[in-house]
Amino acid sequence: LHLFSVPDHPKEGGLVAIYPGRDPKAKAVLMLAHLDVVEAKREDWTRDPFTLVEENGAFYARGVFDDKAMAATWVDTLARYKKEGFKPRRTL
Q1: Which letter does DSSP use for residue 31 in this model?
Q2: Of 2, 14, 33, 49, which has the maximum CB count within 10 A?
Q3: pLDDT tens digits, residue range 51-69?
Q4: What's the CA gap between 53 and 91, in Å, rounded?
Q5: H helical segments located in 1-92
Q6: Confidence of residue 82 (pLDDT cuts 50, 70, 90)
Q7: Closest by CA position to 12, among listed 40, 38, 41
Q8: d(CA 86, CA 56)
């Protein structure tokens, strides 16, 4: 596990987990997700970013589509792999 951040924002960094594969010559697989929340200024939006609106079958609002669940999925997957002793061919 490798934590990283910049000095100006020490609590706003990230985490890189490397799960070694069996074949060091095989290209690694990047599994990417994020947990941060981007600031939303009302004046920057056509619609109110804090109110969910449906128009013509599409949803509009801040955070309507995101991948925070993907971060949880990657953590769970890697924890299960470790517990089960699974060794992928490629490094994850």
Answers
A1: -
A2: 49
A3: 888 999 988 887 666 777 8
A4: 42
A5: 68-84
A6: very high
A7: 38
A8: 46
User: Which tokens in the block code for residue 37?
Assistant: 């929340």
CA distances from 83 to 37, 80, 86 (A): 31, 5, 8
Query: Any idea which residue has 């955070």 for tokens?
Result: 63
Cα dihedral 38, 42, 45, 47 in deg (nearest 10): 120
Beta-strand pair 53-55/2-6: unpaired
CA-nearest of 30, 1, 28, 26 to 13 is 1
Q: In the structure encoding, which two tokens stand for residue 56, read together?
A: 């013509």
Residue entry with tokens 């517990």: 83
